[in-house]
Specification:
Elements lengths: L6 E8 L8 H15 L3 H21 L5 E10 L2 E9 L4 H9 L1
Antiparallel strand pairs: 1-2, 2-3
Helix pairs in contact: 1-2
Length: 101
Amino acid sequence: MSEQSNRATLRVELFPFPDERVVSAISRLVSEFCQMVLDDQDTAWRFHMAAHELAENLAKYSSGARVKLEVSLTEVEGQCMMRVRASNQASPERLREVERR
């Protein structure tokens, strides 16, 4: 992470949320964001994969039109920590499935 700041945040809100075709675009955006902020390309790649999986799940399981994704990178005790927040709507059937699991 750059010495100038110990925190960087990227927020993406999509409305209406498109289908699975946007998953790659979102993961590339997160990857480029991480590469700008981090000095470690391996860590940036891992964060890219995490964002890709989350975006895939958002596209697959969201039933509402509004989806939010927030990615923040924070340096904690010399370690880079990525925090990902997602917000979406799911159908009652999906919620029951999650509760069952």
